[in-house]
Amino acid sequence: MYTKKRFLQILIFGLLFVFLISFANALTQITNCVELQNMNNDLTGKYVLMNDVDCIDSRNWNGGLGFLPVGNSTAGYRFAGTFNGNGFVVKNLYMNRNASYLGLFGYTTANFTIMNTNLTNFTILGKSVMGTAGGYIYGNITHVHIKNSFINSTYYSGTYSNIGGLVSSLGVNCFITNSSVKNLIIRSGSGANGGLVGSSSGNIYYSFVEDTNISAPGTYTNGGFAGTSTGKIFNSYSKNNNISGGNYVSGFVAVGNSLIHNCWSNSTSTSNGYASGGLVGRGLNGLYINNSFWNGKMTGGTDLGGICGQQDFSNSLVRIVNSYSSGKIIASATTTYAGGISGFVKSNNSATHMINNSYSTTIMGGNNPSRRGGIAGSYTNISVFNSYWDIDVSNTTVSCANDTFGGSAYSIGCGNEINRTTTEMK
């Protein structure tokens, strides 16, 4: 039986334990932009926004350089904490730095989480790896919304600027859920730019980009939703966005081997290079598009496809299933390959590309009819099953226009697709 003294000892130790646990989990409250900046003083802290925060004075900080991103790429100085916006708004944050890894958070670790946050009227001028919420992000993002912001790779002249409306780069096994970007402008001198994310190795669910303009003339890998993606994208869309660039331009994902499921885009893309697609510009090995559609407008370039511009990679397998296109493709040259589903399809071995249970009502024009197909513009090593196109609006009665490479021992080719009139499509 416990003595009174022993009982008091147990009680004191118990209370001390509860206090220590509470202290360890304590949240640091943020009420102004200076406190927001001071997160750099504790990169493992747990922060919560207590009210809307206006960072209009940040353009006068640090001799005009503005806000210093929380965390940077140097080991030991990466942000590993959490940030809960509590539904409030951070607005008018300004950066003008001849540097990379720019955003509210510059570089984070896998412990990072940002949630329930609204970011509005941000201006970010820098080199590369830039996003409104963050530059290089390991961790998770949920319910984060961006509006009315501007990002420009003012100081960059390399190959990939890597700009994303929400984040520049999303790491492997990381997540973006229920997040959005609206009314954003991205200006870049180089590629790997996307309305939501520049380059994603993670997974994205229930997110969207609307009314955003991405301009990177003469460069490549620009997408209305993502520049590059190797992870999953589910239940997401790109709406009323305008994207322009050189090679690999798309209303949704510029280059990728993602699993894209239940997604759509009605965005407009303009290219002066090759491989432009309504949903994917260039499809790499493993790309699987399912239950998705495009009904936007595409102009210029070569290898133009309503779903995928170019399925062209050694040892590759790209699948398009249960999907459709109903947009408008205007080629800028008579030599352009254009297809209602895919513009250019090629694989160098037995990994045959697949188009299954899909259709096109896409309007096509501007190129030589011999390079225009209701399903594919140019092909080898392709399997097409239970798919069809509208022969009236597509301006072609040919399913797969040009077996450019003479097929191969592995090629199944076209032959199981169906042409239909507009009346029959109804």
Rg value: 25 Å
Helix fraction, binned, reads under 10%
- CATH architectural type of the largest domain: 3 Solenoid
What is the C-level CATH assignment of the largest domain? Mainly Beta
Give the overall pLDDT as a whole number.
87
Q: Quote the CATH topology of the largest domain.
A: Pectate Lyase C-like
Number of H/I helices: 3
Shape: elongated
Q: How many strands, which pairing sense, and closed or not: the largest β-sheet?
A: 32 strands, parallel
Q: How would you describe what is shown here?
A:
This protein is mostly beta strands and 426 residues long. It folds into two domains: 28-245, Pectate Lyase C-like; 273-426, Pectate Lyase C-like. It is built from three helices and 52 strands. It has a 32-stranded parallel beta sheet that branches. Helix 2 links the parallel strand 1 (28-30) and strand 2. The longest helix has 21 residues, at 4-24. The N and C termini lie far apart (85 Å).
What's this model, at a glance?
With 426 residues, the protein is mainly beta.
Please supply descriptive tags for the structure shown above.
single chain; 426 residues; mainly beta; Pectate Lyase C-like; 2 domains; 32-stranded parallel beta sheet; eleven-stranded parallel beta sheet; 3 helices
List the helices and strands and how they pair.
Layout: H1 4-24, E1 28-30, H2 33-37, E2 46-49, E3 53-54, E4 82-84, E5 89-91, E6 94-96, E7 105-107, E8 113-120, E9 123-125, E10 130-131, E11 134-137, E12 140-152, E13 160-164, E14 167-170, E15 175-177, E16 180-187, E17 191-194, E18 197-200, E19 203-205, E20 208-210, E21 213-215, E22 222-223, E23 226-229, E24 232-234, E25 237-239, E26 242-245, E27 249-250, E28 253-256, E29 259-261, E30 264-265, E31 268-271, E32 274-277, E33 280-283, E34 288-290, E35 293-294, E36 297-299, E37 302-305, E38 308-312, E39 319-321, E40 324-325, E41 328-330, E42 338-339, E43 342-346, E44 353-356, E45 359-360, E46 363-365, E47 372-373, E48 376-379, E49 382-385, E50 388-390, E51 400-402, E52 418-420, H3 422-425
Parallel strand pairs: 1-2, 2-4, 3-5, 4-8, 5-8, 6-9, 7-11, 8-12, 9-12, 10-13, 11-14, 12-15, 12-16, 13-17, 14-18, 15-19, 16-20, 16-21, 17-22, 18-23, 19-24, 20-25, 21-26, 22-27, 23-28, 24-29, 25-30, 26-31, 27-32, 28-33, 29-34, 30-35, 31-36, 32-37, 33-38, 34-39, 35-40, 36-41, 37-42, 38-43, ...
